[in-house]
Automatic annotation (TrEMBL):
Keywords: Glycoprotein, Hydrolase, Protease, Signal. Residues 1-18 form the signal peptide. GO terms for molecular function: dipeptidyl-peptidase activity; serine-type exopeptidase activity. The keyword Cytoplasm does not apply. The keyword Lipid biosynthesis does not apply. Coiled coil: none annotated. It comes from the Eukaryota. This is Lysosomal Pro-X carboxypeptidase. GO terms for biological process: proteolysis. It comes from Asparagus officinalis.
Amino acid sequence: MWDQIVLGLLLIPKLGLVRESTHGKFLISQSNLNEISSSGYKFYNYSQTIDHFNYRPESYDIFQQRYAINDKYWGGAKNNSPIFVYTGDEASLESVIRSAGFLVDNAPHFQALLVVIEHRYYGESNPFGSRKQAYQNTSTLGYFSSTQALADYAQLITELKKNLSANNCPVIAMGGSYGGMLASWFRLKYPHIVIGAFASSAPILYFDDITPENGYLSIVTKDFQETSKSCYRTIRESWFEIDKFGLEINGLSVLSQIFHTCRPLNNTPELKDALASIYSAAAQYDDPTTQPVNLLCSGIDGAFDEATILERVFTGITPWNGKKQCFDIDVYNIDDSASETAIGWYWQTCSEMVMPIGCDSNDTMFQAQPFNIYNYTMDCQKKWGVTPRPHWMTTEFGGHNIKSVLRNFGSNIIFSNGLRDPYSSGGVLCNISDTIVAIYTTQGSHCLDILPATPADPEWLIAQRNEEVKIIERWIAEYKANIIA
C-alpha cells in the first residue's frame, strides 16, 4: 500500500563527564553518564507530564523524557543569547543529534545554547517503560500524539529557561521532516515560547485535499525522467512484466531467481512494493554528492545489451543492496520486528498523521493505486484497533487557505524545501508574508539544508543556508531591540 510505503520514508536518520548537579525536575540520566556526543551535547532526563490536557488522576503521572544540551558556544543568560531547540521527531535522541547539523554548525556564530528534545514514545522517552508495554493497545498509545509532544516541549523549555535564569533569551524551534512540521506548529501554537521556527522539508500541506494525492509520486517520477528517460521507461514497463510472470506457473519462483530475493516470493505485490520503496527513497534522499537516482539509472541503463526489462531493473538495484548477498524484500515492512521508529510512525499515521498519498493511472511511472481511506482504515483497525482521523491535522493546525490565514496572525517561520524531494509537493513553496517565508532550491533533497555541512556542499546549498541564517539573525535582532525598548 502506498500509504505505508511512502510514509515509512518520512523517517529521518565521544562522551565525557556529565555535570553532577540537578536542576529542579531536570535529573541527569544515570544510564547516559558516559553519553556525550563529540559535538558537545550532555544528556539529561526531565520528569514530564504524561497527559497535558486532562485532570484525571492518571494525568498527573510522569515519565522520564530525554533531552540534550550543548552549551559550548552559549553567550549566557546575561547577554540574552539565543536558545536553539530541535523539536525531536520519530527517532532516538542520538539519531536526531547526528542529523541536526545546522544547529551545531551555526551555534558559534549566534552564541546559541542548543537543546534537543526526544519525542515521547521514541528512543528512551517511553511513558510506560518498555516498548512492549507502551505499544500494547490504545489505552497506552492514546497519549502518543503531536499535540502532546508540543506540550512536552513547551513545558520543558519553560522550566529550563527558568532554571537557567534565561527568561529573556529568545528561543527558536528547528526541525526537519516531521520535526519541521512540529517546529512550525510549535511557533503557531506557542508563540509566547518560541519567537521563530525553521522548518526544513515540512509537508504541512499533505493533509485533507490540500495537496493532490499524486504529488509525492509525481516528483519521484520527475526525478527519474530528468535523470534518464530510458530508465524511467524501463521502470514503468517493469510492473507489467512482473504481473505477467505472476500469472505463469512457477512464475513467482522465476521472479525470485531474477531478483535474488532472500526468501521465495509469496505474491507479486510484495516485490513491487519493495521496488517502489527503493525508487521513492532514492528520489527523496537524492543528495547531490551520492546521487542515488543516478546510481539506480546507471545500472538500469548500463545493463548488458541482451538483458530483459526485469534483469535491467535488478542490475539497477544491485548497488542499493550494498554488501547483502540477496534482495531483502521485507526491509520496508512494518511489523512487530520493525524498529521503534518505524512502528511508532505507523501508529501516528493511523491516528492523526493521515497523508493521502496515491496515484491514478498514467500520471506517474508507477501502477495506479489511488488512496483509499476505507482500506487505510481497515488496515489501521486491524493493526491498532484505532480509526484514523483524516481531517484532524487541518482542524488542529490549519492548512486550508494558509496564505490568508497565516498572513493575519502568523510570523517568523522559514519553510525550506528542495524540489527533488517528493515531500516538497506538500510543502510551503511561496512566501506568505514578509516574515513567513519559503526558501527552496531546485536541486535539493529531503532535509538537506538542516543536515551537517560538508566540504562537498554545492554553492546553491551554501547559499540556501546563508539565507536562512540571515533571516534568523533578523528575528533575534528585532527581539533584542524590543527587549531593550
